[in-house]
Each structure stands twice: as C-alpha cells, then as structure tokens.
Amino acid sequence: MQEAAGVFERAGSALRYRMAGPGDGPVVVLGAGRWLDHRMWDPQLPELWAAGYRTLTWELPSPRPGDRHARWRKLLARKESAPSPDAVPDVSVPVESVPIDHVRTYPTPVVRENLTVRGLAEALLELADRLRAHRQLALVGHSLGGQVAQEAAFLRPERVAGLVVVAAGCLTLPPRLGAMFRTVPAHRWAKLASLAFASRSDARIRHEAARAAGVDAATQTHAYTAMEHLDKSRLTQVWRAGVTSAHPEPDYRIDQPLLLVRGEFDRTSRLGRQAKRWLDRDPRAEYEVLDRAGYLANLDNPRAFNRVLLEFLTARHPVPRTRRRGHRAG
Predict the structure, then answer these.
(1) What is the rounded CA–CA span in Å between residue 170 and residue 258?
(2) Would you say the C-alpha torsion 326, 327, 328, 329 has a positive or negative sign?
(3) Which terminal Cβ of the chain has fewer Cβ within 10 Å, N or C?
(4) What whole-number distance in Å separates Cα of residue 200 and Cα of residue 266?
C-alpha cells in the first residue's frame, strides 16, 4: 500500500491531504465536513482499500497553537518591506510527502487564506493533478466537503466519474420563487455569517455543533474533539465560506452519476429540503436516507453508509477486474 501525506497550498487556499490504498486503484476523494478532519472517514477507509480503491482525504489545516496572531504579524512585516507594485508573489507550495506515521504531527501552515469553496475546489483539482491522479475521480464530500466536490465537478466535469454528496445543499439550484434573501449578495451573507457568531463564544459554538452532529454519543464526542483546536475566528471563517458558496445556475445540470446521502435525523443540512428539486433537475441523481443516523451519517451508521457508498462506487466507478484480482491475490 502506497501512502503519502502533506500540506498543499495554491493561491492562498490550503489543503492538508492523505493518500493511501492500492497504488493502481481508482481514486476516491473524501472531503471532510465543516470544522471536521480526516478522522471522520476512518470507518470507510479500510473497506474502500479492501475493495481496491485508492483514497485521497483532505481537510483544512489550522494554525498551530500559539500562532493565532502570526497572520497579523506577517501583514505588519509585509508593510515594512512591501514589494514593488509590479512584483507578483509566488505563493505556490510544492506537494510534499511524509510517512503516514507522522501525519498527525506534520507541521501545518498558519492559516492566511481567503477561504472560499471555489478556491478550495481549484486547489483540490490541482492537488489531484500534482499527485498524478490523472484518471477520473470519484468525489465524496460531507457538508463543506460536499460543496467543494460540487464546485470541482462544476469547474472540471471531465475529471469527475461520480459524486457522493452527504449532508450538503446544492450550490447551483435556483432559489424557489418568493424565497427570502434570494437577492442577497455573497458579501452580505458574509456579514450575516459573522454577526450570527458575534454574541456566541467559541465553546458554545463547539458544544452546539457537537450536539447536532449525530444521534450517537460517540459521534458527538468525535465532532467536539475535532473542533477543540479551532478558535472563534476560524469557526466563523469556515462557516462563512459555506454559506456564501451558492451560485444559482438555471441551465446547469450535473451529468455525472450523483448520490445524495442524508441521515434520517439530520436537521442541520439543507439536503432534506432540497432533495426532491435536486432529483427532479439531475436525471442521474439517487437519494438515500440512512436509518438511525443524523448529520454525520457515516459515523452514526457506518455499516449502512459503507453499503450504499460501495454499491454506488462499484456501479459508477468500478475497480477494473484485473486490478481487483491482483489486489486480492496480494
């Protein structure tokens, strides 16, 4: 099994990634949900590897402890030694690889990006190219990760074999006639997002988000643990990126196979309210509601989630038989 991990940055959008699984297997990209990390996919990875798939998981890096004000120090230093107006700064960072054993201690950059779903999608596509994942990708994403997956398919549909969107609304559906705020521009949504968190402490935000994450106590604990290192500024930034990501496209259709997945007790995402319109618009869309599961359906009911995920992948993004036999023989 080939393994690599690192941090990739493209024009201010940073991704922390981990790639593992059979070296010649079809690539499945798994994007972490809002405020979560790669560990949310732990119940899925062994089954994907055993089925012959190679996985690329990604998440947002966060500042190291004690570096929360480094961005402002860097801005002040930049003012003192400002480059000439004609200078074009090179902010790209080459893909780096480290042993998988060191993933949890790999140093992450100070977060300084202008976080947007489109920027993350562009970074993800370039990362896949840099990692030489040249064949088509199956994109799986939860919440923010599902939004990034949709945007990647919108930008480069030829790279996408199929989409699995978990607990995320549709970015491109036009609003219903008479819907409130249908004309609110993105910068107004950004202000509203900041105001929504203004009177709440980061501890309260984490507590409320963890309670809404799932029906199982272990799922709620997992969500809280993933958010422990995020301060209020980062929590707000990520939430704002999600709520400002929609761009209605009346004539757009997702031509790739599409699987929408939602837990029956999910009250957080917009997927339940949008599923019927989404299915009516995109002819290749399927919809699964998992029993005994909430917002983090893949953690609340991993057995059911793994079943529908692998059924979709084997039908829409199959492992070639020669590779499958070779993998099992190995």
Answers:
(1) 12
(2) positive
(3) C
(4) 23
Residue 47 makes CB contacts below 8 A (sequence gap 6+) with: 306, 310
pLDDT, position 99: 41
Can you give the pLDDT at residue 52?
96
The residue assigned the tokens 């947007």 is 116
The residues, any chain, with a CB within 8 Å of residue 52's CB and separated by 6 or more, are 22, 25, 26, 319, 323, 324, 327
Single-letter amino acid code for the residue at 275? A
Would you kindly state where each structural domain of the chain is located, as residue ranges?
Answer: 2-66+87-174+247-329
The whole-angstrom separation of Cα 324 and Cα 327 is 5
Query: CA-to-CA distance for 152 and 143, rounded, in angstroms?
Result: 14
Q: What distance in Å separates the CA atoms of residue 137 and residue 145, rounded to the nearest whole number?
A: 15
DSSP classification of residue 131: T
CATH topology of domain 2-66+87-174+247-329: Rossmann fold (3.40.50)
Q: 3-state DSSP call for residue 154? A: helix
* Average pLDDT of the chain, as a whole number: 83
Q: CA-to-CA distance for 107 and 105, rounded, in angstroms? A: 6
Q: What is the CA radius of gyration of the chain?
A: 20
Instruction: Decide the pairing of beta strands 160-166 and 54-59.
Output: unpaired
The model's pTM is: 0.82
